[in-house]
Backbone:
């Protein structure tokens, strides 16, 4: 899965003032990210506000992404949930033509044991027509895939090819990197941890900030993969403050504020999320000016 090496972007869902999907702005985000040099795009990830999107809206987003991408970069689709049977049904019914892999998040709210998590992803692996990227983000789901479970899944199922690791704990990623099968990939799901995890042997990142700063972030990851450490860290330190700011009031409120400041799409989000405050927008705009100066 060399197509997953480097920077992927968990793309936002732009909304109009009436909170309908802004298809034209979505096309603009896609062009901006690809033009910025990212290696692949992720549709219907966490940053897309997927829980607030209807089935029809999700189909519209996937159709827009695949059609407008036009084969320029590989695509990953998010298919996960806390009802294993429903996830399997989605895998069998959602149109995944044009996508290279599936990103499947750990079940939220149920708080399954490691055995339950293993059995869940076992069924996903047995049903998926595409390679699978596990997605571990305990701050959102309330459960965490332990390294032992990740390694067991990676060893047992050839179509489980990677994990998006978003615990924010470097030791978790390092344990996986130390013991993983040769071709299994660790992808950072935390912008601030992406550089150290890549330098530890990871394969890059699925990024949020790359929606707004695709060139800088993807350059940083490529430098890390080339082991040009000092140059990579010079970009990390330049982006560090903004990486934190865009999460101060939740994701994707912060990165949408950044995109609005840059004239790419509006900062509108759907409830229960709230739009970034004017105070945060001022901070982001000031930091963006500092980065560009």
Residues:
């Amino acid at each position: 899965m060399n197509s997953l090496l480097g920077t992927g972007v968990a793309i936002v869902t732009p909304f109009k003032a009436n909170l309908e999907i802004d298809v034209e702005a979505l096309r603009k985000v896609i062009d901006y990210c690809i033009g910025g040099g990212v290696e692949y795009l992720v549709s219907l990830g966490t940053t897309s506000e997927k829980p607030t999107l209807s089935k029809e809206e999700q189909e519209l987003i996937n159709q827009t992404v695949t059609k407008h991408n036009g084969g320029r970069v590989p695509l990953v689709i998010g298919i996960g949930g806390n009802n294993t049977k429903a996830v399997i049904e989605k895998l069998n019914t959602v149109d995944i033509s044009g996508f290279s892999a599936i990103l499947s998040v750990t079940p939220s709210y149920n708080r399954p044991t490691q055995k339950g998590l293993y059995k869940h992803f076992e069924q996903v692996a047995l049903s998926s027509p595409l390679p699978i990227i596990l997605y571990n983000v305990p701050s959102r789901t309330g459960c965490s895939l332990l390294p032992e479970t990740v390694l067991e899944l990676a060893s047992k199922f050839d179509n489980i090819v990677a994990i998006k690791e978003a615990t924010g704990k470097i030791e978790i990623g390092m344990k996986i990197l130390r013991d993983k099968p040769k071709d299994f990939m660790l992808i950072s799901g935390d912008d601030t941890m992406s550089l150290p995890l890549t330098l530890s042997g990871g394969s890059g990142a699925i990024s949020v900030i790359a929606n707004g700063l695709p060139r800088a972030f993807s350059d940083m990851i490529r430098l890390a993969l080339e082991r040009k450490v000092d140059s990579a860290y010079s970009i990390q330190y330049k982006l560090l403050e903004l990486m934190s700011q865009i999460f101060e009031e939740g994701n994707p409120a912060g990165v949408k504020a950044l995109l609005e400041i840059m004239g790419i799409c509006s900062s509108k989000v759907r409830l229960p999320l709230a739009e970034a405050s004017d105070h945060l927008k001022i901070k982001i705009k000031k930091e963006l000016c500092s980065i560009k100066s």
Remarks:
- The chain has one domain: 2-225.
- The mean pLDDT is 97.
- Residues 177 and 201 are 6 Å apart (CA to CA).
- The radius of gyration is 18 Å.
